[in-house]
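ESCALATION

Customer reports they have been waiting on this structure for their group meeting. Please prioritize. Original submission:
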Amino acid sequence: MENNPYGMAAMWAQGDWVIKSVALLLLIMSIASWYVIITRSIRLYRLRKNVGTVDKFWHTHSFAEGLQVLGKDTGNPFHHMAIEGQAAVNHHSTNKDDLHGQISLADWLSEALRGAMDEAAEKLQSGLSILASVGSTAPFVGLFGTVWGIYHALVGIGVSGQASIDKVAGPVGEALIMTAFGLAVAIPAVLGYNALTRANKGLLSKLNRFARQLHAYFLTGSPMQKDSAVRTMPLKKEA
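Update from on-call: job pushed to the front of the queue and completed.
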């Protein structure tokens, strides 16, 4: 079978260092974006499993039992938030002579839970800037390769003195391939960014609700109500 003189292999063999650099850059951007999409999707899938344990947490009979229900996974933001809240309450009660003792327990607890919330949000959003950068710059990187390919075509016409198809087919082919590469890299990055951002917002909403419930529990001994008709079972605070 004869090799295609205008195929990918021919483009790579005949292309200069500019075309090869653009192709390698797009390949690196594609690998980076797919790595972020796959790893963050796996992490979100695991975190979604932890969402179902929140309701079970509020139906346990002690805080320690509730922590066991949430699991011991250090990457579980719900478990981490519960630990941070309990640590804030204990620290406030045992260090009342310190400067922060002048701050009310409600405010001190709010800041601790807000800090845990911000930390969880930062972890969830890590890597999304890569997708945003790839999605916004990959088309222009491909466009640069397109312009360079057209430039080669014009140079070939000028040198030969005639616009024959064999003089311009190769450079124009390079231009079209670079355009396709840029779109092939950018489109998955944009779609992945939008999907992950939407999934993160849903998870952060559940974390924010859990933080409010924890705040109510540590101050009153019972979680906030889901609605006016359904009451959740109060937890017994440990001594």
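Sent to customer with the following note: The radius of gyration is 28 Å.
Escalation resolved.
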